[in-house]
Amino acid sequence: MMKALQYVEVGGAPEVREVPVPDPGPGEVRLRVTAAGACHSDSFVMGLTEEQYGQFGYPLPMTLGHEGVGVVDALGAGVTTVTEGDAVAVYGPQGCGRCYSCTLGRENYCPHAAALGITPPGLGSDGAMAEYMVVRDPRVLVPLGDLDPVAAVGLTDAGLTPYHAIRGSLDRLGPGSVTVVIGVGGLGHVALQMLRALSSTTVVALDISDEKLEFARSSGAHHAFRSDSDAPALVAEIAGSRPVAAIFDFVSSQPVADMAWSMAGFETDVVLVGAGAVRSRLGLLGQPWGSRARAPYWGTRPELMEVLELARTGQVHVDTTVFSLEDGPEAYRRLHDGELRGRAVIVP
Question: What topology does CATH give the domain 160-294?
């Protein structure tokens, strides 16, 4: 038996439970988990009503944790590409592995995953918040090398997601450009570092408290302002005669999205990264000419390798608060109540 942090009942708090140690089937790999990350996506899922949760169809109980790193512990029949003792990170948005998108490593956009019942660990299948986890295919294991697992685990989502979002806008982030990041939380503070590492754009961060604005400055923002009614004018003053190049919204609520579009101009990228659904006017007469609206999802396997390399060379890090597995419910409470800076990491 082993301990696992599971979501057991819709609307309830996660619970630490004793469950059987999983055995890897043919082609599968078992990991001894060294760290798992807690994410707002988990909190979002656990905040759904019974009716809303039914639309996702995630089975319960479900072990949480779609950010996971570990050491290869056991191999299923036929596995030859990894070795017991290898330190690895788990690529979360897994696809069928055979289609055009998956062949390119873009499993986050696999068109067949849903029909085949393939879901990310911790978001439909058992995840990393346990002493051991099983992954369905060694291809989704990315070498971790000598990276500290506690420092690296958040990179599998909190690093990969903003990296994928930013990569899609790099053509607009040249010298003299201005970029806005809304929401300096687990993903937003990493996005600030990545914008500084990958581009020459001037970075403006917006959030609701002085503490978050100081966090933004320490994470690389050139300017940091409160995300209130004065923000668009302050951003426009910095941008000068040029339109804002890109706006990365890590909140994606209707008021925040409305503010984002109010700052957009010709050829602005408005990138909605946060887990939400908003309304917006699109089309030639509904948005600034040449502007682009994107809703990127997670990232690709090659991009995860690149993110780990950014961490390995000291260009990016995830601010973390560490919890034991037994304290996992408290980590999610603090995450839900906005009491965490950066990311919560569970160490079994």
Answer: Rossmann fold (3.40.50)
